[in-house]
Design goal:
Helix content: 25-40%
Structural class: alpha/beta
Strand order of the largest sheet: 1-2-3-4-5
Order of helices and strands: EEHHEHHEEH
Largest sheet: 5 strands, mixed
Distance between the termini: 34 Å
Strand content: 15-25%
Shape: globular
């Protein structure tokens, strides 16, 4: 797993780890992303929508903490829970986070 920080966002990118281990590593390290937005980069991985559901508790937790949670993946977005934001490119992920930050600043 690769971890990068850009502005107020932590970017997790899956490397050679097993997918379930990748999810566990992220969830087990809350100090890495405390008070930060999360962007999960799965752009280069073939996924099924059912695999994305594992991130739902983390997405809900981030929303409660008024932080963004976005996944970058090439899947059918209509088959994913509404709690999880999935976009096709990394740039769109950063754009969504920026828009949500602006909305929170404006009190929406």
């Amino acid at each position: 797993m690769k971890v990068k920080e850009k502005n107020n966002t932590v970017v997790f990118k899956k490397s050679s780890d097993d997918f379930s281990e990748f999810i566990e590593k992220i969830i087990e390290q809350p100090n890495l992303f405390k008070n930060k937005n999360i962007l999960i980069d799965l752009e280069e991985i073939a996924l099924r929508p059912s695999q994305i559901i594992s991130f739902e508790p983390l997405a809900v937790l981030q929303k409660k903490q008024k932080k963004s949670f976005v996944i970058v993946a090439d899947i059918d977005f209509d088959e994913v829970s509404e709690e999880i934001i999935v976009v096709p490119t990394l740039q769109e992920g950063f754009d969504i986070i920026e828009m949500e930050e602006i909305e929170r600043d404006l009190g929406f």
